[in-house]
Amino acid sequence: MPTCVECGASVRNLYTQYSKDNIRLTSCDQCNEFADKYIEHDFVIIFIDMLLHKPQVYRHLLFNRISQAGNRIEPHVTRFAILLILFEVYMKWFRLETYHADYETTFVQHPLHYQYMYILTLCIIEFVAFHCCVRLAIRLYLIYQQPSSPKQIRYNYVSMALIISSFGKMLLILMVIWDYKQLEYSWLVSLIVLASNAEALSVYLGIRYVRVVGILLLGIASKLLAQYLFLYVTGRMSSPPSVWLSF
After folding, report:
1. How far apart are alpha carbons 208 and 201 in whole angstroms?
2. For 127, which of 28, 152, 166, 223 is 20 to 30 Å away at the CA?
3. Closest C-alpha among 12, 51, 18 to residue 196
4. CA of residue 122 relative to chain centroid, distance
5. Is the pLDDT of residue 16 over 90?
6. Closest CA to 215 of 188, 194, 233, 244
7. What is d(CA 162, CA 33) in angstroms, rounded to the nearest whole number?
8. pTM for this one?
9. How far from 104 is each of 99, 204, 237, 245, CA to CA, in Å?
């Protein structure tokens, strides 16, 4: 059922449509607020509220915008995940060519398609390791909380919550365009993404914010471990530059 973005209670419907251009938003019986005010808001307002980490906007996106049927990831969320991975490839490649070209001479001398496929493989491994570890940590946490009958959740929604709330990674492109301190403060963007991930998972799972952050830190640790193992296996771990080992 649709969900009230203000209090999280279930509602029968989000609006009543009287004609093509005439709708009336439904009020929630629990909090007496509009069940989903974002129906009438454009993307700019939604994006601003995502930047502000408002739980209401994540309830809107996760419960009222995404189909509640099936166990797959929605096609538009999948496309956004692919965009995030390709953007991560670009950022790693940019760091490598800008800051470490002299150090990684043997890598830079490889053909462009080899460089691209190498970094793409690394980014895919990072993505899979992070999502798998977060899913596993959530599963173990729910079993620990209720050993007899752990709460049943859809883990495809966990991945979709992480993907949607990782929109902040796109902010790095502004630092590249404006050359803001040569990406020196890119770690701040990583903290914004971590906070967004925590907000989205807290809204979906109904778990306290601090515990969600702990789960995400485990995911980041697994991502760094996957990076290290991949670079070790491929022989690029002699004094690894920061372009590789980053979260």
Report:
1. 9
2. 152
3. 51
4. 18
5. no
6. 194
7. 28
8. 0.86
9. 10, 42, 11, 14
